[in-house]
Design brief:
514 residues, alpha+beta, 7-stranded mixed β-sheet, 3-stranded antiparallel β-sheet, flat
Length: 514
Protein backbone atom coordinates (compact mmCIF):
# COMPACT_ATOMS: atom_id res chain seq x y z
CA UNK A 1 0.00 0.00 0.00
CA UNK A 2 2.78 2.44 0.92
CA UNK A 3 4.62 1.60 -2.30
CA UNK A 4 1.53 2.52 -4.34
CA UNK A 5 1.13 5.84 -2.48
CA UNK A 6 4.82 6.69 -2.92
CA UNK A 7 4.73 5.77 -6.61
CA UNK A 8 1.81 8.17 -7.17
CA UNK A 9 3.40 11.10 -5.30
CA UNK A 10 4.64 14.03 -7.34
CA UNK A 11 8.32 14.95 -7.15
CA UNK A 12 7.47 18.18 -5.29
CA UNK A 13 5.35 16.23 -2.78
CA UNK A 14 8.29 13.95 -2.03
CA UNK A 15 10.63 16.91 -1.57
CA UNK A 16 8.23 18.67 0.82
CA UNK A 17 7.61 15.50 2.85
CA UNK A 18 11.34 14.78 3.09
CA UNK A 19 12.02 18.37 4.24
CA UNK A 20 9.38 17.97 6.97
CA UNK A 21 11.02 14.74 8.08
CA UNK A 22 14.40 16.46 8.33
CA UNK A 23 12.77 19.26 10.38
CA UNK A 24 11.38 16.92 13.01
CA UNK A 25 7.93 16.47 11.46
CA UNK A 26 6.83 20.08 11.14
CA UNK A 27 7.97 23.32 9.53
CA UNK A 28 6.62 26.55 8.07
CA UNK A 29 6.31 26.75 4.26
CA UNK A 30 9.01 29.43 3.98
CA UNK A 31 11.60 27.14 5.59
CA UNK A 32 10.53 24.24 3.39
CA UNK A 33 10.87 26.40 0.29
CA UNK A 34 14.40 27.41 1.30
CA UNK A 35 15.55 23.85 2.02
CA UNK A 36 14.05 22.34 -1.16
CA UNK A 37 14.84 25.18 -3.62
CA UNK A 38 11.13 25.35 -4.48
CA UNK A 39 9.17 28.57 -4.60
CA UNK A 40 6.42 29.14 -2.06
CA UNK A 41 3.64 28.44 -4.59
CA UNK A 42 5.14 25.05 -5.44
CA UNK A 43 5.46 24.22 -1.73
CA UNK A 44 1.84 25.16 -0.95
CA UNK A 45 0.55 23.28 -4.00
CA UNK A 46 2.44 20.15 -2.95
CA UNK A 47 1.30 20.62 0.66
CA UNK A 48 -2.34 20.82 -0.46
CA UNK A 49 -1.95 17.56 -2.38
CA UNK A 50 -0.29 15.87 0.60
CA UNK A 51 -3.05 17.07 2.92
CA UNK A 52 -5.77 15.70 0.61
CA UNK A 53 -4.08 12.28 0.85
CA UNK A 54 -3.83 12.41 4.63
CA UNK A 55 -0.02 12.49 4.59
CA UNK A 56 0.33 15.89 6.31
CA UNK A 57 -1.89 18.41 8.06
CA UNK A 58 -1.79 22.14 7.40
CA UNK A 59 -2.34 24.12 10.59
CA UNK A 60 -3.71 27.56 9.80
CA UNK A 61 -3.33 30.51 12.16
CA UNK A 62 -5.12 33.75 11.32
CA UNK A 63 -4.07 37.02 12.97
CA UNK A 64 -6.01 40.27 12.71
CA UNK A 65 -3.40 42.98 12.21
CA UNK A 66 -4.02 46.68 12.90
CA UNK A 67 -2.80 49.48 10.66
CA UNK A 68 -3.66 53.13 10.10
CA UNK A 69 -5.93 54.24 7.32
CA UNK A 70 -5.38 57.43 5.28
CA UNK A 71 -7.19 59.66 7.78
CA UNK A 72 -5.77 57.72 10.72
CA UNK A 73 -2.17 58.59 9.76
CA UNK A 74 -3.07 62.30 9.57
CA UNK A 75 -4.95 62.32 12.87
CA UNK A 76 -2.21 60.32 14.65
CA UNK A 77 0.25 63.12 13.81
CA UNK A 78 -1.97 66.22 14.01
CA UNK A 79 -4.73 65.12 16.42
CA UNK A 80 -8.37 64.23 16.01
CA UNK A 81 -10.72 66.99 14.79
CA UNK A 82 -12.64 66.98 18.10
CA UNK A 83 -9.32 67.48 19.97
CA UNK A 84 -8.61 70.60 17.89
CA UNK A 85 -12.12 71.94 18.59
CA UNK A 86 -11.63 71.21 22.31
CA UNK A 87 -8.41 73.26 22.33
CA UNK A 88 -10.20 76.15 20.58
CA UNK A 89 -13.08 75.98 23.07
CA UNK A 90 -10.56 76.09 25.94
CA UNK A 91 -9.57 79.55 24.74
CA UNK A 92 -13.02 80.98 23.88
CA UNK A 93 -15.30 78.76 25.99
CA UNK A 94 -18.16 79.07 23.46
CA UNK A 95 -17.92 79.16 19.65
CA UNK A 96 -20.73 79.22 17.10
CA UNK A 97 -20.78 76.30 14.66
CA UNK A 98 -20.14 78.53 11.65
CA UNK A 99 -16.87 79.72 13.21
CA UNK A 100 -15.54 76.36 14.37
CA UNK A 101 -13.59 75.49 11.21
CA UNK A 102 -11.74 78.83 11.20
CA UNK A 103 -10.94 78.92 14.93
CA UNK A 104 -9.98 75.27 15.31
CA UNK A 105 -8.12 74.89 12.03
CA UNK A 106 -10.05 71.84 10.82
CA UNK A 107 -11.62 71.40 7.39
CA UNK A 108 -15.24 72.68 7.05
CA UNK A 109 -16.29 69.19 5.91
CA UNK A 110 -15.10 67.78 9.26
CA UNK A 111 -17.13 70.12 11.49
CA UNK A 112 -20.37 68.12 11.73
CA UNK A 113 -18.61 64.80 12.37
CA UNK A 114 -16.27 66.41 14.94
CA UNK A 115 -19.22 68.01 16.80
CA UNK A 116 -20.92 64.64 16.95
CA UNK A 117 -17.85 63.03 18.51
CA UNK A 118 -17.07 65.87 20.92
CA UNK A 119 -20.63 65.69 22.26
CA UNK A 120 -20.53 61.88 22.39
CA UNK A 121 -17.38 62.09 24.52
CA UNK A 122 -19.05 64.68 26.78
CA UNK A 123 -16.47 67.38 26.06
CA UNK A 124 -18.98 69.99 24.85
CA UNK A 125 -22.70 70.76 24.51
CA UNK A 126 -24.60 72.31 21.62
CA UNK A 127 -27.32 74.92 22.13
CA UNK A 128 -28.88 76.97 19.30
CA UNK A 129 -25.77 76.62 17.19
CA UNK A 130 -23.36 77.50 19.99
CA UNK A 131 -20.80 74.87 21.10
CA UNK A 132 -19.73 75.23 24.76
CA UNK A 133 -16.97 73.32 26.56
CA UNK A 134 -17.96 71.19 29.60
CA UNK A 135 -16.05 70.33 32.78
CA UNK A 136 -15.25 66.90 31.30
CA UNK A 137 -13.87 68.70 28.28
CA UNK A 138 -11.61 70.84 30.51
CA UNK A 139 -10.37 67.71 32.26
CA UNK A 140 -9.77 65.94 28.90
CA UNK A 141 -7.30 68.68 27.85
CA UNK A 142 -4.65 67.21 30.12
CA UNK A 143 -4.82 63.61 28.87
CA UNK A 144 -5.43 61.94 25.48
CA UNK A 145 -8.43 59.64 24.94
CA UNK A 146 -8.06 55.88 24.53
CA UNK A 147 -8.74 56.16 20.79
CA UNK A 148 -5.99 58.81 20.47
CA UNK A 149 -3.60 56.61 22.43
CA UNK A 150 -4.27 53.68 20.07
CA UNK A 151 -3.65 55.85 16.99
CA UNK A 152 -0.33 57.00 18.46
CA UNK A 153 0.59 53.43 19.49
CA UNK A 154 0.03 52.05 15.98
CA UNK A 155 2.00 54.94 14.44
CA UNK A 156 4.99 54.56 16.77
CA UNK A 157 5.05 50.75 16.97
CA UNK A 158 8.03 48.99 15.41
CA UNK A 159 6.31 45.62 15.42
CA UNK A 160 3.03 44.21 14.15
CA UNK A 161 0.06 44.95 16.39
CA UNK A 162 -2.70 42.35 16.46
CA UNK A 163 -6.23 42.71 17.74
CA UNK A 164 -5.75 39.82 20.17
CA UNK A 165 -2.63 41.52 21.56
CA UNK A 166 -4.38 44.73 22.62
CA UNK A 167 -4.99 45.52 26.26
CA UNK A 168 -8.58 46.02 27.44
CA UNK A 169 -8.27 49.81 27.34
CA UNK A 170 -6.76 49.83 23.85
CA UNK A 171 -9.46 47.43 22.72
CA UNK A 172 -12.01 50.05 23.82
CA UNK A 173 -10.14 52.55 21.68
CA UNK A 174 -10.37 50.17 18.73
CA UNK A 175 -14.15 49.87 19.21
CA UNK A 176 -14.38 53.67 18.91
CA UNK A 177 -12.06 54.00 15.92
CA UNK A 178 -13.65 51.22 13.86
CA UNK A 179 -16.87 53.27 13.76
CA UNK A 180 -15.05 56.01 11.86
CA UNK A 181 -14.30 55.55 8.19
CA UNK A 182 -10.69 55.63 7.02
CA UNK A 183 -9.02 55.80 10.44
CA UNK A 184 -8.01 52.22 11.09
CA UNK A 185 -7.60 49.05 9.04
CA UNK A 186 -8.00 45.49 10.24
CA UNK A 187 -6.29 43.00 7.94
CA UNK A 188 -6.12 39.24 8.30
CA UNK A 189 -2.67 37.67 8.10
CA UNK A 190 -2.61 33.91 7.72
CA UNK A 191 0.35 31.75 8.71
CA UNK A 192 0.73 28.05 8.06
CA UNK A 193 2.55 25.17 9.70
CA UNK A 194 3.01 21.87 7.89
CA UNK A 195 2.85 18.82 10.19
CA UNK A 196 3.30 15.19 9.19
CA UNK A 197 0.57 12.71 10.15
CA UNK A 198 1.10 9.08 11.21
CA UNK A 199 0.61 8.10 7.59
CA UNK A 200 3.25 10.61 6.53
CA UNK A 201 5.65 9.34 9.20
CA UNK A 202 5.10 5.75 8.00
CA UNK A 203 6.06 6.83 4.48
CA UNK A 204 9.17 8.58 5.81
CA UNK A 205 10.13 5.47 7.79
CA UNK A 206 9.62 3.31 4.71
CA UNK A 207 11.86 5.60 2.69
CA UNK A 208 11.72 6.80 -0.92
CA UNK A 209 13.99 8.19 -3.60
CA UNK A 210 14.05 11.77 -4.87
CA UNK A 211 14.58 11.50 -8.60
CA UNK A 212 13.27 13.01 -11.80
CA UNK A 213 10.10 11.36 -13.10
CA UNK A 214 8.65 11.25 -16.59
CA UNK A 215 5.01 12.21 -17.05
CA UNK A 216 4.98 12.58 -20.85
CA UNK A 217 7.30 11.50 -23.64
CA UNK A 218 9.00 13.64 -26.28
CA UNK A 219 9.61 12.78 -29.91
CA UNK A 220 13.37 12.64 -29.22
CA UNK A 221 12.90 10.12 -26.38
CA UNK A 222 10.85 7.87 -28.61
CA UNK A 223 13.31 8.18 -31.49
CA UNK A 224 16.42 7.40 -29.44
CA UNK A 225 14.78 4.73 -27.21
CA UNK A 226 15.85 6.72 -24.14
CA UNK A 227 12.28 6.36 -22.86
CA UNK A 228 13.19 2.82 -21.81
CA UNK A 229 15.47 4.14 -19.07
CA UNK A 230 13.07 6.73 -17.63
CA UNK A 231 11.28 6.41 -14.29
CA UNK A 232 7.55 6.88 -14.69
CA UNK A 233 5.34 8.35 -12.04
CA UNK A 234 2.21 6.37 -11.14
CA UNK A 235 -1.20 7.93 -11.65
CA UNK A 236 -3.93 7.97 -9.02
CA UNK A 237 -7.17 7.22 -10.85
CA UNK A 238 -9.12 8.20 -7.71
CA UNK A 239 -7.67 11.72 -7.69
CA UNK A 240 -10.05 14.69 -7.83
CA UNK A 241 -10.74 16.13 -11.25
CA UNK A 242 -12.21 19.44 -12.38
CA UNK A 243 -15.95 19.50 -12.97
CA UNK A 244 -16.94 20.09 -16.60
CA UNK A 245 -20.26 21.70 -17.47
CA UNK A 246 -20.80 21.24 -21.22
CA UNK A 247 -23.45 23.09 -23.15
CA UNK A 248 -26.73 21.18 -23.42
CA UNK A 249 -30.35 21.57 -24.35
CA UNK A 250 -32.69 22.94 -21.69
CA UNK A 251 -34.71 20.06 -20.15
CA UNK A 252 -38.06 21.61 -21.13
CA UNK A 253 -36.90 22.04 -24.71
CA UNK A 254 -35.56 18.48 -24.64
CA UNK A 255 -39.02 17.21 -23.63
CA UNK A 256 -40.63 19.23 -26.45
CA UNK A 257 -38.19 17.82 -29.00
CA UNK A 258 -38.86 14.27 -27.80
CA UNK A 259 -42.62 14.82 -28.17
CA UNK A 260 -42.10 16.20 -31.68
CA UNK A 261 -39.97 13.19 -32.61
CA UNK A 262 -42.66 10.74 -31.41
CA UNK A 263 -45.43 12.32 -33.47
CA UNK A 264 -43.25 12.69 -36.55
CA UNK A 265 -42.34 8.99 -36.29
CA UNK A 266 -46.06 8.19 -36.05
CA UNK A 267 -46.58 9.86 -39.42
CA UNK A 268 -48.00 13.21 -38.28
CA UNK A 269 -47.32 16.49 -40.08
CA UNK A 270 -46.33 19.46 -37.94
CA UNK A 271 -48.16 22.78 -38.17
CA UNK A 272 -47.48 26.10 -36.48
CA UNK A 273 -49.77 28.97 -35.63
CA UNK A 274 -49.50 32.52 -34.32
CA UNK A 275 -49.77 33.38 -30.61
CA UNK A 276 -51.99 36.38 -31.48
CA UNK A 277 -55.31 34.98 -32.60
CA UNK A 278 -58.87 36.10 -33.21
CA UNK A 279 -61.65 35.04 -30.87
CA UNK A 280 -63.22 33.50 -33.97
CA UNK A 281 -60.53 30.81 -34.38
CA UNK A 282 -59.76 30.53 -30.66
CA UNK A 283 -63.37 30.17 -29.45
CA UNK A 284 -66.21 30.56 -32.00
CA UNK A 285 -64.95 28.07 -34.55
CA UNK A 286 -64.62 25.52 -31.73
CA UNK A 287 -68.28 25.95 -30.76
CA UNK A 288 -67.54 27.76 -27.52
CA UNK A 289 -70.48 30.13 -26.82
CA UNK A 290 -69.67 33.81 -26.57
CA UNK A 291 -70.83 33.91 -22.96
CA UNK A 292 -68.68 30.93 -21.97
CA UNK A 293 -66.73 31.38 -18.71
CA UNK A 294 -63.39 30.64 -20.47
CA UNK A 295 -63.81 33.86 -22.47
CA UNK A 296 -64.03 36.10 -19.43
CA UNK A 297 -61.21 38.49 -18.56
CA UNK A 298 -59.93 36.29 -15.71
CA UNK A 299 -59.12 33.50 -18.19
CA UNK A 300 -58.15 35.27 -21.41
CA UNK A 301 -55.64 37.96 -22.36
CA UNK A 302 -57.44 40.41 -24.65
CA UNK A 303 -55.16 42.57 -26.81
CA UNK A 304 -55.68 46.34 -27.20
CA UNK A 305 -53.55 46.74 -30.32
CA UNK A 306 -54.81 45.47 -32.67
CA UNK A 307 -58.13 45.41 -30.88
CA UNK A 308 -59.82 43.50 -33.70
CA UNK A 309 -58.67 41.10 -36.41
CA UNK A 310 -59.72 40.23 -39.92
CA UNK A 311 -62.05 37.24 -40.19
CA UNK A 312 -61.95 34.55 -42.92
CA UNK A 313 -64.47 34.26 -45.81
CA UNK A 314 -68.01 35.42 -45.09
CA UNK A 315 -69.56 32.03 -45.87
CA UNK A 316 -67.38 30.30 -43.23
CA UNK A 317 -68.14 33.03 -40.69
CA UNK A 318 -71.84 32.74 -41.47
CA UNK A 319 -71.88 28.96 -41.04
CA UNK A 320 -70.07 29.24 -37.66
CA UNK A 321 -72.53 31.90 -36.48
CA UNK A 322 -75.49 29.76 -37.61
CA UNK A 323 -74.10 26.74 -35.72
CA UNK A 324 -74.03 28.83 -32.55
CA UNK A 325 -77.55 30.19 -32.99
CA UNK A 326 -79.55 27.12 -34.09
CA UNK A 327 -77.08 24.36 -34.99
CA UNK A 328 -77.07 25.13 -38.72
CA UNK A 329 -77.01 21.97 -40.89
CA UNK A 330 -75.81 19.73 -38.04
CA UNK A 331 -79.20 18.71 -36.65
CA UNK A 332 -78.26 20.36 -33.35
CA UNK A 333 -80.18 23.15 -31.63
CA UNK A 334 -76.98 25.20 -31.18
CA UNK A 335 -76.62 27.45 -28.17
CA UNK A 336 -79.81 29.40 -28.81
CA UNK A 337 -78.52 32.99 -28.68
CA UNK A 338 -77.82 35.76 -31.20
CA UNK A 339 -74.21 35.36 -32.30
CA UNK A 340 -72.19 38.65 -32.50
CA UNK A 341 -69.56 38.91 -35.25
CA UNK A 342 -67.85 41.84 -33.48
CA UNK A 343 -67.11 39.60 -30.48
CA UNK A 344 -65.54 37.09 -32.89
CA UNK A 345 -63.21 39.82 -34.21
CA UNK A 346 -61.61 40.45 -30.80
CA UNK A 347 -57.84 39.91 -30.58
CA UNK A 348 -56.63 37.47 -27.94
CA UNK A 349 -53.48 35.64 -26.97
CA UNK A 350 -54.41 32.05 -27.80
CA UNK A 351 -55.60 30.12 -24.76
CA UNK A 352 -54.92 26.73 -26.36
CA UNK A 353 -53.35 25.34 -29.52
CA UNK A 354 -56.68 23.85 -30.68
CA UNK A 355 -57.11 26.97 -32.82
CA UNK A 356 -54.22 25.64 -34.95
CA UNK A 357 -56.25 22.45 -35.54
CA UNK A 358 -59.29 24.49 -36.59
CA UNK A 359 -57.28 26.51 -39.12
CA UNK A 360 -55.62 23.35 -40.44
CA UNK A 361 -58.98 21.65 -41.04
CA UNK A 362 -60.24 24.74 -42.86
CA UNK A 363 -57.21 24.71 -45.18
CA UNK A 364 -56.65 20.96 -45.73
CA UNK A 365 -58.79 18.02 -46.83
CA UNK A 366 -58.83 14.65 -45.03
CA UNK A 367 -57.32 12.15 -44.68
CA UNK A 368 -54.75 13.94 -42.53
CA UNK A 369 -52.69 13.69 -39.34
CA UNK A 370 -51.39 16.92 -37.82
CA UNK A 371 -49.79 18.01 -34.55
CA UNK A 372 -48.63 21.38 -33.23
CA UNK A 373 -46.46 22.41 -30.26
CA UNK A 374 -46.64 25.97 -28.99
CA UNK A 375 -47.09 28.43 -26.18
CA UNK A 376 -50.51 29.34 -24.86
CA UNK A 377 -51.60 32.11 -22.47
CA UNK A 378 -54.16 32.31 -19.65
CA UNK A 379 -54.71 34.78 -16.82
CA UNK A 380 -53.46 32.41 -14.13
CA UNK A 381 -51.96 33.41 -10.77
CA UNK A 382 -48.35 32.24 -10.63
CA UNK A 383 -48.01 29.35 -8.17
CA UNK A 384 -45.94 26.20 -7.84
CA UNK A 385 -48.23 24.47 -10.34
CA UNK A 386 -49.66 27.29 -12.51
CA UNK A 387 -48.16 29.82 -14.93
CA UNK A 388 -49.85 32.39 -17.19
CA UNK A 389 -47.73 31.12 -20.08
CA UNK A 390 -47.05 27.46 -20.84
CA UNK A 391 -46.79 24.89 -23.67
CA UNK A 392 -49.31 22.52 -25.21
CA UNK A 393 -49.10 19.82 -27.86
CA UNK A 394 -52.22 19.60 -30.02
CA UNK A 395 -53.11 16.97 -32.58
CA UNK A 396 -55.88 15.81 -34.93
CA UNK A 397 -56.47 12.74 -37.09
CA UNK A 398 -59.17 12.92 -39.78
CA UNK A 399 -60.27 9.99 -41.98
CA UNK A 400 -63.39 8.01 -42.88
CA UNK A 401 -62.49 5.08 -40.62
CA UNK A 402 -61.31 7.10 -37.56
CA UNK A 403 -63.26 6.52 -34.35
CA UNK A 404 -62.97 7.05 -30.60
CA UNK A 405 -61.15 3.75 -30.12
CA UNK A 406 -58.46 4.85 -32.61
CA UNK A 407 -57.99 8.05 -30.61
CA UNK A 408 -57.37 6.09 -27.41
CA UNK A 409 -54.92 3.86 -29.25
CA UNK A 410 -52.90 6.84 -30.55
CA UNK A 411 -52.67 8.38 -27.08
CA UNK A 412 -51.79 5.06 -25.48
CA UNK A 413 -48.93 4.59 -27.96
CA UNK A 414 -47.71 8.15 -27.38
CA UNK A 415 -47.51 7.73 -23.60
CA UNK A 416 -46.05 4.24 -24.01
CA UNK A 417 -43.15 5.71 -26.01
CA UNK A 418 -42.61 8.23 -23.20
CA UNK A 419 -42.53 5.33 -20.73
CA UNK A 420 -45.86 5.82 -18.96
CA UNK A 421 -48.87 3.69 -18.20
CA UNK A 422 -52.04 5.59 -19.20
CA UNK A 423 -55.75 5.33 -18.48
CA UNK A 424 -58.75 7.36 -19.62
CA UNK A 425 -61.82 8.71 -17.83
CA UNK A 426 -64.89 10.52 -19.22
CA UNK A 427 -64.78 14.32 -19.42
CA UNK A 428 -66.62 17.29 -20.93
CA UNK A 429 -65.31 19.82 -23.49
CA UNK A 430 -67.53 22.22 -25.52
CA UNK A 431 -66.08 21.13 -28.85
CA UNK A 432 -65.71 17.32 -28.51
CA UNK A 433 -68.00 14.36 -27.93
CA UNK A 434 -67.11 11.70 -26.87
CA UNK A 435 -64.55 13.36 -24.57
CA UNK A 436 -61.93 11.95 -22.23
CA UNK A 437 -59.06 13.01 -19.99
CA UNK A 438 -55.72 11.18 -20.01
CA UNK A 439 -54.15 10.12 -16.73
CA UNK A 440 -50.69 8.60 -16.25
CA UNK A 441 -49.57 6.42 -13.37
CA UNK A 442 -46.76 7.48 -11.01
CA UNK A 443 -45.33 4.34 -9.35
CA UNK A 444 -43.39 6.25 -6.70
CA UNK A 445 -46.59 7.98 -5.51
CA UNK A 446 -48.92 5.09 -6.33
CA UNK A 447 -51.33 7.59 -7.88
CA UNK A 448 -52.66 8.84 -11.21
CA UNK A 449 -52.25 12.39 -12.54
CA UNK A 450 -54.23 14.11 -15.30
CA UNK A 451 -52.18 15.49 -18.23
CA UNK A 452 -54.63 16.49 -20.98
CA UNK A 453 -57.95 16.21 -22.75
CA UNK A 454 -59.10 14.58 -25.98
CA UNK A 455 -62.20 13.58 -27.89
CA UNK A 456 -64.01 13.47 -31.24
CA UNK A 457 -64.81 16.89 -32.71
CA UNK A 458 -68.51 17.68 -32.61
CA UNK A 459 -70.49 18.16 -35.84
CA UNK A 460 -70.95 21.83 -34.84
CA UNK A 461 -67.18 22.23 -35.23
CA UNK A 462 -66.74 20.17 -38.40
CA UNK A 463 -69.77 21.12 -40.53
CA UNK A 464 -68.96 24.88 -40.79
CA UNK A 465 -65.40 23.91 -41.82
CA UNK A 466 -66.72 21.65 -44.58
CA UNK A 467 -65.34 18.46 -42.99
CA UNK A 468 -67.48 15.39 -43.52
CA UNK A 469 -65.20 12.76 -41.96
CA UNK A 470 -64.73 12.01 -38.23
CA UNK A 471 -61.88 13.93 -36.54
CA UNK A 472 -60.11 12.75 -33.39
CA UNK A 473 -58.43 15.57 -31.41
CA UNK A 474 -56.22 15.85 -28.35
CA UNK A 475 -54.46 18.60 -26.38
CA UNK A 476 -51.82 17.83 -23.75
CA UNK A 477 -49.87 20.00 -21.31
CA UNK A 478 -46.07 19.77 -21.59
CA UNK A 479 -44.78 21.53 -18.46
CA UNK A 480 -46.51 19.10 -16.09
CA UNK A 481 -45.08 16.18 -18.05
CA UNK A 482 -41.59 17.72 -17.85
CA UNK A 483 -41.98 18.20 -14.07
CA UNK A 484 -42.83 14.51 -13.61
CA UNK A 485 -39.89 13.36 -15.69
CA UNK A 486 -37.43 15.73 -14.00
CA UNK A 487 -38.69 15.01 -10.49
CA UNK A 488 -39.48 18.65 -9.60
CA UNK A 489 -42.53 19.89 -7.70
CA UNK A 490 -42.47 23.59 -8.67
CA UNK A 491 -43.28 24.52 -12.27
CA UNK A 492 -41.32 27.76 -11.88
CA UNK A 493 -38.07 25.75 -11.81
CA UNK A 494 -38.45 25.26 -15.57
CA UNK A 495 -38.11 29.02 -16.14
CA UNK A 496 -35.83 30.26 -13.33
CA UNK A 497 -32.51 29.49 -15.11
CA UNK A 498 -31.10 27.94 -11.94
CA UNK A 499 -27.55 27.21 -13.17
CA UNK A 500 -26.80 24.90 -10.26
CA UNK A 501 -29.79 22.70 -11.09
CA UNK A 502 -29.24 22.86 -14.86
CA UNK A 503 -25.56 21.90 -14.54
CA UNK A 504 -26.42 18.80 -12.53
CA UNK A 505 -28.72 17.48 -15.24
CA UNK A 506 -27.04 15.00 -17.62
CA UNK A 507 -26.34 16.00 -21.21
CA UNK A 508 -28.70 13.31 -22.46
CA UNK A 509 -31.15 11.30 -20.46
CA UNK A 510 -34.10 9.00 -20.89
CA UNK A 511 -36.68 9.37 -18.16
CA UNK A 512 -38.54 6.17 -19.01
CA UNK A 513 -40.55 4.50 -16.27
CA UNK A 514 -40.79 1.21 -18.14
Amino acid sequence: MLEKIINEMHLYEKKVLKALGESGGQAIPEDVAQSTNLDIKQVMSAAGALESKGIIEIERDVEEVLSLGPSGSTYAQEGLPERKILEALHKDHTIHMKDLAQKSGIEPSEVKIAIGWIMKKGWAVLDKGNVTITDDGENALAKPGIDEILLKTIMDSTKILTLDGLSNSLNEGFQLLKKRKGLINLNKNSSYTLVTTKKGQDILDHGFQIREEATQLTHEQLKTDSWKNLHYRGYDIQAEHPLIFPGKMHPLQRTIQEIRRIFLNLGFNESRGTVLESAFWNFDCLFQPQDHAAREMQDTFYVKSPQSTQLPADDLVGRVGQAHEDGGQTGSEGWGYQWDVDVARQSVLRTHTTCVSARYLAENEPPLKMFSVGRVFRRETITYKHLPEFHQVEGIVAAEEINFKNLLGILKEFYHQLGFEVRFRPAYFPYTYLSTECEIYLPEKESWIELGGSGMFRPEVLEPLGIETPVAAFGLGIERLAMIRLGIKDIRMLYQSDLGWLRKLPVTQTYSQK
